[in-house]
Amino acid sequence: MQKIKLFFSYSLKIVLVYNIILIFLLLFFRFVDIPSTSFINSIRGITFLPEDELTKSWVSLNEMSPYLPLAAVAAEDQLFFEHFGFDYKAIEKALEVNKRRSSRRIRGASTITQQLAKNLFLYKNRDYIRKGFEVYFTLLIEVFWSKDRILEVYLNSAQTGPELFGVGPASLKFFKKDPLKMGIENSALTIAVFPNPARYNAARPSGFLLRRRNLIVTKMNQVGGIKFIKSNLNVYSSD
User: Fold this and answer.
1) Strand blocks (E) in 69-228
2) pLDDT tens track of the chain, all 239 residues?
3) R_g (Cα) of the chain, nearest Å
4) Count of CB atoms within 10 A of residue 165's CB?
5) CA atoms of 189 and 203, how far apart (whole Å)
6) Quick one: CA dihedral 143, 148, 152, 154, positive or negative?
7) Burial zone of 193 (CB within 10 Å; 0-12 exposed, 13-18 middle, 19+ buried)
8) Strand pairing class (55-56; 164-165)
C-alpha cells in the first residue's frame, strides 16, 4: 500500500512539473519566435536533413499581407475567432460524414489551434492518446495565447512545400514576392497546398490546386474579405 502511495505521489509531482514547464514555455513563446516544432523535427528525422537545409524564417503578422491570414482562416477554420479551440458543429458533421465513408477517406474537423497543437507538440500517427494530448494542448494554447499569436505561429510553422515551412519562405520561393506584398490569389494558392505540401507545388499548380485556390478566394470574399480579418486581428486594428 505504501508503495502505491509513493508511486502516485511521484507521478503527481512529475505531472505537476511537466505542466509548469509547459505553461512556462507557452508564456515564453508568446513573445519569442519559435525555432522549431515537433513536426519539423519529425521531417528532419525522416529525411535525415540537417536543420540548415530546411527552409524556414519567421515573419510577423505585421510583416505579411493580411490576405495570408485571411486565406488561412477562410480555408481552414472560418469560426476561428468565435470558438475556443474546437468547432463542435464541424466535429458533428465530420462524424456523420465518416459514418458513410470508408475508413480510408476520413473527414477531419480540426481547427487552426488543433493543427497548431499537433505541429508544435505531437507526432503524426492517429490514436486516442495523441488525440487526448491534442485536446489538452489546444486548450492551453487558447488560454495563454491571443488569436493573433496563434495565427502567427501557425502561418510560420505550417509546411508549405518539401523541406519548406512558413508562408514567408513560400512567398519568396514560389512567387518571388515579399510576404507583405502577396495578393489575394497568391495568398490563396499558398494556403491551398496545406492538405499535402510535399505533393503540391504552388509555383507549378495542378488543375486541382487551381480549383482549390479559386474556392479559397471565394471563401475569403464570403467571410468578409480584408475588412473581416482586420477587424478581428489586433495587429491590423490601427490601419
Assistant:
1) 159-161, 164-165
2) 777 878 778 889 998 999 999 999 999 999 999 887 886 676 554 443 444 434 568 899 999 999 999 999 999 999 999 999 998 887 777 667 666 655 455 556 789 999 999 989 886 667 788 889 999 999 999 999 999 999 999 999 999 988 788 999 999 999 999 999 999 999 999 999 998 898 899 999 999 999 999 999 999 999 999 999 999 999 987 66
3) 19
4) 24
5) 9
6) positive
7) buried
8) parallel
Residue 92 host element (H or E): helix 88-100
* Residue 119 and residue 158 in contact, taking contact as beta carbons nearer than 8 Å: yes
Domain residue spans of the chain: 36-234
User: How far apart are alpha carbons 61 and 59 in whole angstroms?
Assistant: 7
Query: Does CATH number 1.10.3810.10 belong to domain 36-234?
Result: yes
pTM: 0.87
DSSP per-residue codes, 160-179: EETTEESHHHHHHHHH---G
Could you give the CA distance from residue 62 to residue 179 in angstroms, rounded to a whole number? 10
Name the one residue in this structure whose C-alpha cell is 465513408: 101
Which one-letter DSSP state was computed for residue 234?
G
The whole-angstrom separation of Cα 65 and Cα 47 is 32
**Cell 458533421, residue located:** 93
Instruction: Say how far residue 182 (Cα) sits from the centre of its chain.
Output: 19
Helix pair angle (147-157, 167-175), 10° resolution: 50
What length is written for the chain?
239
